[in-house]
Each structure stands twice: as structure tokens, then as C-alpha cells.
Amino acid sequence: MSDDVTRDLRVEVDEDLIAAALASVEKHLVTEVEDDEPASIEDFDEIDVDPEGTLDPDVDLGDDGPALVFDPGPWGEPPPSLLDEANAKLDAAEAELEASRAVLAEATARVAAAEEESERQKERFLRLNARSKRLKEAYDRLKLRSEDDRAKLAQWEQLINEMRTAARSSERDRDRSRARHAREIDEARRFGTEGVFKELLPVLDHLDLAMSHAEGDPARTVDGIRMIVSQLERTLNRLGLARVPGGVGDPFDPQLHEAITWLPSTDVAPGHIVEVHQEGYQLHGRLVRAARVSVARPAGDLDDEPDTDELDSEAAETTRTSVDEVEE
Question: So what's the architecture of 241-328 in CATH?
């Protein structure tokens, strides 16, 4: 029986079998009378069961009647062989009846079992049908969800493609920007000092003019050079370059000065500048070069001359850092 198809199960008992069983029973229940029995039941209508008048009609015979002694009547005693044959036929009929009853009981049991199996199959079909409906509903939900997922996937793919296009465009823009910045940096390296040179050109012109008159009047040449130096300082000041403060008698500042030696002095206090060997400069407040100076010490401390490296180590480090920053 298929799990997907249901049908009413009907078990049909062979009617011929039942009919044959009933006919056999009836056949053996009917007593056949040979030639000496009456032709029909009407022949017994006129028989007088009490010809002598010995029975009292008012006697209660009960349900079973009075106990009577069998009188064979005019036919006499039946032969034993006939009784045996009749008994044998009766026994055979009873046996066949029992067999028919057994067949009928078996057929009835089969019908009941078939009906029970039919009910079980019907219930199973109903369960399978309900499960099929649930599976179909789940499939419809999954199908709808799959369609939604495909739509979302298409949106994400479109967004990814747009982002890739934007990334490629941004990469091209970045490459162009890098190339432009490289050109600008190269131009800045090559022409960034153009303004400085324009500021220094007048100083150079004046220096050439002074050199052209150096042989005629040395004193005038010296004055001209002083004027050129003053002009150069003003030009450098306009460009943001200024001298590091500090001269003779000023306190030694390791942030701005580099001590190259210690000198005994009675005119300058210890720890102050005695002599400036090389001017220091700052560019917009940042140290470009520290001033190289000599520092005073108390007179008479010849044996205890301090280590100048320790004194100006911090200043030297500051100077190197500042110079590196300027070079960068």
C-alpha cells in the first residue's frame, strides 16, 4: 500500500464459501425419509396420538410434555444400520458445521484485522498529509526567504561593484595626487629658496660694488663691508633668521650655547660667557646652530678645571637635534 495514496480497504469474504457452508449445515439438519415415510407433512395431520383415550386432557404436560415411551407404530423399529448412518451423517454435518463456523470466524477476524489496518493506514495517511502540508509551508517560507536573500545578494553585489569602482577611482586620484605632490616637492626643492636668493641679491650686488672699489680706498671698503654685513643681517631677520642671544658677561645657557673651553677670569662671574667664538642662529625661534663660547671659572682653580664635555653636552645635543630638524 502506497504511503502517498489512501483508499478504503474492503475485505470481501467469498460469498460462495459462506453459502456452501450454510447449505452443508442445512443438508445435514434435514432428515431424509426413505420410501416408507409419508410423502408430505399433511399426511401426519390425521394421526391420533391417543387412540385409546388414556391421556387426561386436563393434565399439565409442562414445557417438555409427559414422559412417553416410544412406540414405533406400524413401521417398527428402524434398523441399526440406518441409525448408524444417520448418526454418522449427523456427526459429519456437525463437523462440517464446526469447520464452516471456524472458516466464518477466521473470515470475520480477517475482516476486523483488515478494517483495523485500514484505520491505521488512514491515520498514517492523515499524519503524512499533515506533515506534507507543514513541509510545503516550510518550503514556501524557505523559497520566499531564498528570493529575499537573492535580492539582498544582488544589492550587496551592486554595492561591492560600486565600492570597487570608487576604490579604483580613488586609487587613480591618489596616484595623480602623488605625482602632483612629487612635482611640487621637486619644485619646492629646486625653487623653494627663490625668495631667499631674491632677498640676498642686493647684498651680493653691494658686495661686488665694494670689491670693485677695494683697491682705491681700503677704509671706504671696510665701511662698505660693514654696511653689507648690516644689510645681510636685516635681510636674514626678514627671512626669520636671528642671532642667538648672549654675549660676553651673559649667563651660559646650555640650550643656546656650546661651551668649548673654560677660562679663569676675574672680570666675569663664573658660569658666564667670557668670549663668543662663533655666533649662533635661530630660525623662527628654532635653534639652527648653537653659539660656540668660552665660559668663565673662578681664578686659581687650574687643577680643578671642569670637563667641558659635561658642561655643554646638553647644549651640543640640542644643537645637533635642531640642525637635523632644519636639514629635514
Answer: Roll (2.30)
